[in-house]
Automatic annotation (TrEMBL):
Family: Belongs to the autoinducer-2 exporter (AI-2E) (TC 2.A.86) family.
Protein name: AI-2E family transporter
Primary site of residence: membrane
Keywords: Cell membrane, Membrane, Transmembrane, Transmembrane helix, Transport
A cellular-component GO term for this protein: plasma membrane
InterPro entries per record: AI-2E-like
Length: 406
C-alpha cells in the first residue's frame, strides 16, 4: 500500500474484513445454531457420565460418545416413532368408533351443567340444534372448527421440525463429546483474559443454571408422569401405566400431559363416567400441569442459588420469547444478569477496602528493607518475611551490649 496513505486505512480494512467474515460465518451457521445449542446443553448436562464411560472403555472417547448418542436416540426417538406408528395403525378404528357414537346422536349433557344460570339454557339450546342437524348451527360450528385445521397443520410442521432438530442435535453432540474439552479450555482461557476470575465465576454460574434446568426437566417429567398415572388409575382408565409413561414424555412440551388427559377425559364422558371425566380433566389441568411451574424452578434454584420468583420469570418469559430453547436461556441469562448487578451494587466494608489497599506483610517488609538499604539475607531455613529489619533505635546486629559499653 502507498506509504503516504493515511494510517487508519489499513486497520479499517482489516476490521471490515473481520466483520464481513463473521457475518458470512453467521449466515452459514444460522440454520444450525439451535441444534448446536441443544447439543451443547445435552453434552454439558451429561459430561460426567461421558467421562465415566470413557474411562471404563479405556479412554476411547469416540466409542463412548457413539454409545451415549445411541442411548439417547433409543430413549427419545424410538418411543416417539412407536407412538406415531401405533396411532396411524389405529386411526381408522378411532374414526369408525367416533362415527358410530355420533350416528346414534350426541350424548346428553349432565343436568348440573344445564342448570347453570344464563349459560345452561343457551348451551342446551345449541346442543339440541346441533343434535338435530340444524343447517345454521352446523354452518356456525364449521366456522368455529375451520381454524382448527390450520392449527393442526402448524402443529404437524412444528413436530416435524422438532424431530429434525432432535436428530441434528444428537449428530452434533457426538463431535462435542469427542472434542468438547478443547473448546472448554479455549473458552475458559478467553474468559480469564477478558474478565479474570469473575468471568470464570459467571461461567460456572451459567453452567450450574443450565444443569439445573436439565435436572428440572427430568424431575418434572417424572413427577408429572407419576401424577398422571395416579389420575388415570384412580379414574379407572385402562392401561394407566402406559398413559403415564406417555405423559412423562409429553411433559417436555409445556402443557403436554393435558393434550393426552383431556381426550381421555372426553372418552370417559362418552362411556358414561361423567364424574370421573370431570375429575380427570380437573386433575390434569390443575394438578399435573401446575407441577411444571413448581418442580422445575425449585430444582433450578437448588443449582444456581437464585430467588424462586426470578427463576419462575426466567422459565416462563424465556419460553414465551424463544420457545423450548428459551426455557434454558431465560433462567441462565437472568442468573448472570442478577449476579452482575448484585456484585456491582454491593458496597465493600471498611475492612475489605483497607485489606484491598494494604499490601501483604512480606511485600511491605521487603519495600522497607530496600528503601533503608538494610535488607539482610534470611538465615537458612528461615523465610525472608521473618528477618528482623533493624530500626534507628536498635543497635546494629553483632554489636556488643555488655555493661562496659553502656
Amino acid at each position: 500500500m502507498n506509504p503516504q496513505s493515511p494510517r487508519w486505512i489499513e486497520p479499517a480494512i482489516a476490521a471490515g474484513s473481520v466483520v464481513l467474515l463473521l457475518a458470512l460465518s453467521y449466515q452459514i451457521l444460522a440454520p444450525f445454531i439451535a441444534a448446536l445449542v441443544w447439543a451443547g446443553i445435552l453434552v454439558y448436562a451429561t459430561w460426567t457420565p461421558f467421562l465415566w464411560l470413557s474411562r471404563k472403555l479405556g479412554d476411547r472417547r469416540g466409542l463412548a460418545a457413539a454409545l451415549l448418542v445411541l442411548l439417547f436416540a433409543l430413549l427419545i426417538l424410538v418411543p416417539l416413532v412407536v407412538a406415531g406408528v401405533e396411532l396411524s395403525l389405529n386411526l381408522d378404528e378411532i374414526v369408525a368408533w367416533a362415527r358410530s357414537k355420533l350416528n346414534g346422536g350426541l350424548p346428553d349433557l349432565p343436568a348440573w351443567l344445564l342448570s347453570l344460570p344464563w349459560f345452561g339454557p343457551k348451551l342446551a339450546e345449541f346442543w339440541g340444534e346441533l343434535n338435530a342437524g340444524d343447517p345454521e348451527t352446523m354452518a356456525r360450528l364449521h366456522e368455529w372448527i375451520k381454524p382448527l385445521g390450520g392449527f393442526l397443520l402448524v402443529f404437524g410442521k412444528a413436530v416435524g421440525s422438532g424431530l429434525l432438530l432432535l436428530v441434528l442435535s444428537l449428530f452434533f453432540s457426538f463431535f462435542l463429546y469427542v472434542s468438547g474439552h478443547s473448546f472448554v479450555k479455549w473458552l475458559m482461557a478467553a474468559l480469564r483474559r477478558i474478565g479474570g476470575e469473575r468471568a470464570q465465576a459467571l461461567m460456572k454460574l451459567a453452567g450450574g443454571t443450565v444443569r439445573g434446568v436439565v435436572y428440572g426437566f427430568i424431575g418434572t417429567a417424572l413427577v408429572q408422569g407419576a401424577l398422571a398415572w395416579f389420575g388415570y388409575w384412580l379414574a379407572g382408565v385402562p392401561n394407566a401405566a402406559a398413559f403415564g409413561l406417555v405423559s412423562c414424555f409429553l411433559s417436555l412440551i409445556p402443557g403436554g400431559p393435558s393434550l393426552l388427559g383431556l381426550p381421555v377425559a372426553a372418552w370417559l364422558y362418552m362411556q358414561g363416567g361423567t364424574g370421573w371425566a370431570i375429575f380427570l380433566a380437573i386433575w390434569m389441568v390443575a394438578v399435573v400441569a401446575s407441577a411444571d411451574n413448581i418442580v422445575k424452578p425449585l430444582v433450578i434454584g437448588k443449582e444456581s442459588n437464585l430467588p424462586f420468583v426470578l427463576i419462575l420469570i426466567g422459565v416462563l418469559g424465556g419460553a414465551l420469547a424463544w420457545g423450548m430453547l428459551g426455557v434454558f436461556l431465560g433462567p441462565t441469562l437472568l442468573a448472570v444478569s442478577f449476579t452482575l448487578l448484585r456484585n456491582w451494587g454491593a458496597t465493600p466494608t471498611l475492612a475489605e477496602a483497607e485489606a484491598a489497599m494494604t499490601p501483604p506483610a512480606d511485600t511491605l517488609s521487603e519495600a522497607v528493607a530496600v528503601a533503608t538499604g538494610r535488607r539482610h539475607a534470611a538465615p537458612e531455613g528461615r523465610p525472608a518475611s521473618a528477618v528482623v529489619i533493624p530500626t534507628e533505635e536498635a543497635p546494629p546486629p553483632g554489636e556488643d551490649l555488655s555493661t562496659d559499653q553502656r
